[in-house]
Amino acid sequence: MEIIDGKKVSAACREEIKQELTSLGKKVGLAVLLVGNDKASEIYVRNKENACKEVGIQSYPFIFDENADEQSIIQTIIACNQNPDIYGILVQLPLPERLDAAKILSYIDPKKDVDGFSRYQMGKLLLGEDCLVSCTPQGILQLLDAYHIPVAGKKAVVVGRSNIVGKPIALLLLQRNATVTVCHSKTENVAEYTKNCDILVVAVGKKGFITGDMVGENTVVIDVGINRVDGKLFGDVDFDTVAPKCSYITPVPGGVGPMTVTMLLKNTVKAAKNAH
Amino acid sequence: MEIIDGKKVSAACREEIKQELTSLGKKVGLAVLLVGNDKASEIYVRNKENACKEVGIQSYPFIFDENADEQSIIQTIIACNQNPDIYGILVQLPLPERLDAAKILSYIDPKKDVDGFSRYQMGKLLLGEDCLVSCTPQGILQLLDAYHIPVAGKKAVVVGRSNIVGKPIALLLLQRNATVTVCHSKTENVAEYTKNCDILVVAVGKKGFITGDMVGENTVVIDVGINRVDGKLFGDVDFDTVAPKCSYITPVPGGVGPMTVTMLLKNTVKAAKNAH
Fold first, then answer.
1. Partners of residue A176 in chain B, C-beta under 8 Å
2. Is B183 an 8 Å CB contact of chain A?
3. Staple B268 to which of A59, B59, B88, B262, CB 3.0 to 4.6 Å?
4. Hey, are the CB atoms on B127 and A188 less than 8 Å from each other?
5. What are the domain boundaries of chain A?
6. B123, A123: Cβ pair inside 8 Å?
7. Is the whole model's pTM more than 0.95, yes or no?
8. Does A148 contact chain B (CB < 8 Å)?
């Protein structure tokens, strides 16, 4: 059994990104919009700013207070759309409930949609076209590639069908020629599927949802869960009982998590390249 | 075993569409562009025109000869985009090879994309939003509904992963709470999946690909194949050996086929409603 080291893979990706930026020879900017003072969101935004700094992306933070009106947020997005130095635009979610998130996000120029959440980028993904893929699913593929884990012809099971993880990773694995099953809360016997696969991706947001008895021998297990309990982080996979049966497993923290921000940087560079 | 009668369901849908059109009280137009003189395409276009006539949709045929230049086709699309009487625009595929189909299709206003092939409509589908769903997958759901075949919690297997059938029907079944597996040409043991499911959708374009020994008892089998051999139509399913094991099965012809054009009419009415 090998533990997949997301920090190591992430660091190597950032080195590549630095070099790409150097050879691009352009100032590349990423706009990050934060509304309100949610503590977790503030931490995420700070992490993104630090990551930008590390690789040499210019970050443009736009901080709005809790009561900011929709129109001023939209105006900022429109200004970023028009700013030729800004190649990526990101609105930190969740937004305060009184705001219409879908409406606000719809103003982002799809070509600057480095989160890959827009209909345009999602449509390209479904059609199998080259696109800005949302960061977590893209990070999972990078981890598999970094450890030379074959995907083609393999049985993959994805547990969870969210728009930002479950459905995109299912499509990406399908594109890589895996036979893919998507399970979810309405699946009657999840273990029947999880026991009998080569690659298992779990993204349900429930601490320890997958236990040792639900996994077969030699499975590659990718744990996307980030569950905070008493200030500690836990995955969707019960590491202690599952790990002994795996060929590879991602830990939480230190597995998929570190890849997500790095893929945001990668998408920003890709958007900048596409623009030329 | 019950044979699903696509002609009957299609006729009932067309009655509903007629009534919707009457209550809408508007002239609703569908533009159909045909390039060249492919015999099959001419038949399809004629069928679509007749179907429009039957329900009271005004069809606007645009016939281009084999050597029509790209620009004149695009100009026609742009004019249709701007014509307020035209709510749906359809380019009959395949286009002559020398033309860039993706480029030409990209000019269709996504809101008038009644084939549901655009990135915008595909993105909405992936995100689970209400959208213009491509006609064949939508027709399959209508058949299941017409026969009160439950989908939620069921095991569904889709064989084939095309952009116009396999991937969209997988997403639609997932949205209806089925547990969905997508198999394809790189799947190692297709029978392992097809034998062990409640709903089997086959869209591979190979005559008789699924045989009786590949199907379990009481399966609902949806055959999307249309394979022409010596002027006769055959499905992807070997009807004679598979039908005795099914709870329901669609024949070819007369199953999914009749639904496709009807869903085009339905999408056109939907686009007209959305526009108001």
1. none
2. yes
3. B88
4. no
5. 26-109, 135-257
6. yes
7. yes
8. no
List all residues 6 or more positions away from A198 whose beta carbon is below 8 Å from its beta carbon.
A154, A155, A156, A218, A219, A220
Please give the ipTM for the structure prediction.
0.96
In the residue annotation, B48 being an active-site residue is answered as: yes
Among B residues 49-78, those touching chain A with beta carbons less than 8 Å apart: none
Q: Is A163 on the interface with B (CB under 8 A)?
A: yes
CATH topology classification for B135-257: Rossmann fold (3.40.50)
> Which of B126, B155, B188 to mutate to test binding with chain A, by most A CBs within 10 Å of its CB?
B126
| Domain B26-109 class in CATH | alpha beta
- Residues of chain B with Cβ-Cβ distance to A108 below 8 Å are none
pLDDT digits (tens, 9 = 90+) for A86-136: 999 999 999 999 999 999 999 999 999 999 999 999 999 999 999 999 999
